[in-house]
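Deviation from plan, reported transparently: beta-alanine complex.
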Amino acid sequence: MQSCLRVFRDVAALRQCRRQLLLSQRTVGLVPTMGALHAGHLSLIRQAARENDEVFVSIFVNPTQFGPNEDLGSYPRTWDADMAKLAELDAELEALASKKQSGANNVIANTLAKATNSSSATAAGESDAGVGGRITAIFAPTAAAMYPSVRSPTEPSTGNSFITIDPLSRLLEGASRPAFFRGVTTVCMKLFNIVEAERVYFGQKDVQQTVIIRRMVQDFFVNTQVRIGATEREADGLAMSSRNVYLGDRRRKVSTVLYKSLRSAEDTYLNYNLGEKRLSRADVLGPAQDLLRAVTSEQELLPPSQRSRIELDYLSLADPDTLEELDEVDPSRGGILSGAVRMLPIEEAVEGEDGGLGDGKVTVRLIDNIILQPRV
Ligand SMILES: Nc1ncnc2c1ncn2[C@@H]1O[C@H](COP(=O)(O)OP(=O)(O)OP(=O)(O)O)[C@@H](O)[C@H]1O
Ligand SMILES: CC(C)(CO)[C@@H](O)C(=O)[O-]
Ligand code: BAL
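Because the crystal trials were delayed, the predicted structure below was used instead.
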């Protein structure tokens, strides 16, 4: 069946829809996004649909989380393709829900038959199990709707109200992007207050964002549950990201360097003998730094018409709660390995080369992380 998605542009109409659902005791899962949807977003929506009756997806390229020299203007905006992906996914969810519904109907029929035969009421509760949610609403507000007190939503620094979660928002990504988390927490608080979802969904790919959102929800008593979905990756390990469309063929080939480096650090942690002294920061991050250096130098030796230039922003081994850098890993707590690299613009394009969106001229900042799970 053709899916018809309901798009909401303003807050009042969305709230009205939410209120109706509340009155019918339907649970809502919210998946906040900035659009340019890929399999990572879709897996969060699938998870939300498994765990809620209704799924709200927000699509909003939030101006306050971009710094003055960042890519707000060129951030990929792919509305028609996004709607097509959401309609296709919703059709998949509908098929799944009707399959589950007929399974549930069979359970009811069997239970009734058994109850009639032997007055047993076993498994009656199973009929109450959710049949799987659908995509109920796409919330795609204008910047003016989200920032009603600000004269220019693209310059929202004056007269705006902000939520800041410090010191977490100053570390790691926050050190490179000082206004970033203030913008993220502010827009998420707005979305949480507008939608009042039972559950909100975030991707592991943006690990610091997950830690900060959890902290915000806890500290401000936001009445929602924060759920985290695993990082979806391309076959070669590159974390999916809306910005990957800017890489082009040449930079795409070396873009796995960050993930491979983090994996080499993870290997050290996983293979370390717990009976020995604790692993130091250098023990863990050393192999990752070596690999990054090796790939970077290998590329630098190539001519400008062939090379990709990689600039390391940071490699981190941090505490899972405070995100403070660790001098050594306590295997009973584990840690978070994370990093960011910039894939610099291509210097000399070759005729016929696919430079990606922006023809290879846009710097692409990649982030990734791996959680070191406690080993004892
Ligand atoms: N590869 C992925 N796997 C799982 N979740 C993801 C992945 N990429 C993004 N997400 C999550 O999707 C949500 C929306 O992210 P967003 O729209 O910024 O996409 P994005 O791919 O992270 O874009 P970019 O990194 O280029 O800003 C966030 O919670 C984010 O963590
Ligand atoms: C959570 C979010 C949608 C807020 O704009 C954004 O930071 C993102 O997409 O990760
Ligand atoms: N997913 C992170 C959003 C951003 O980089 O702005």
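Residues 7-93+129-229 form a domain with the Rossmann fold fold (CATH 3.40.50.620). We consider this an acceptable substitute for the interim report.
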